[in-house]
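User: I'm preparing a small set of examples for a lab meeting where we compare how different chains pack in three dimensions. I only have the primary sequence for this one, and I'd like the structure in token form so I can line it up with the others. Please keep the answer compact; I'll paste it straight into my notes.
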Amino acid sequence: MNRPVRVLVVDDEALLRHALRAFLSADDRVDLVGEATDGHEAITAYSACAPDVVLMDIKMPRLGGIETTRRLVEQDPHCRVIALTTFTTEWRALEMLKAGAAGYLVKDSTPEQIVDAIIAAYQGDRVVSPEVQRTFVLDSLDEENPRTAPSEALSEREREIVGLIARGLSNVEIAEALHYAESTVKADIRNINRLWQVENRLQVVLRAAQLGVVSL
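Assistant: Understood. Below is the structure token output for the 216-residue chain.
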């Protein structure tokens, strides 16, 4: 990236906004450009500060996060929203993603996980907390029969990467774990996406579970 990712934080809890402000300001990959306490303020702030990514609470007074996300995406199809919430239920995540969110994180995510998710969303990926991701995958496996495409089409390194994606690791963390350059990890993920005909990390995990590459 040539510049920090511009972030708008939307949450009605002052303590959480303070915490987010503290660690976002300490990371030079991101730039906190605005804050809002509900959906109405978020829509105004979005127009005023033109963020790249919005961190959005779901339960807020006056106008909640799901409807706010829907309105922002209608206003700007390029808007990237990440839900940051205490809710881990699948239907909440599904409603948020259907509204146009690019990600869904729970509030016990680490600062590193949140910043990594912001970067990933900005780059076009979809990020879901491992707890919620696991629910999506298990429910999907209950409804669908596993596909029969060969998992051995992946290299050993690519299979390792898939396993680390399923554990919720970011590209940077995967590169550190496997002692490869981040660019190498990104190239491998692009190849995984091509071979499995998927578009994001959640779909990678679902496909891996269907093929038995990972167990959840």
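A couple of notes for your slides: The chain is about 55% helix and 15% strand. The chain has a mean pLDDT of 85.

User: Perfect, thanks.
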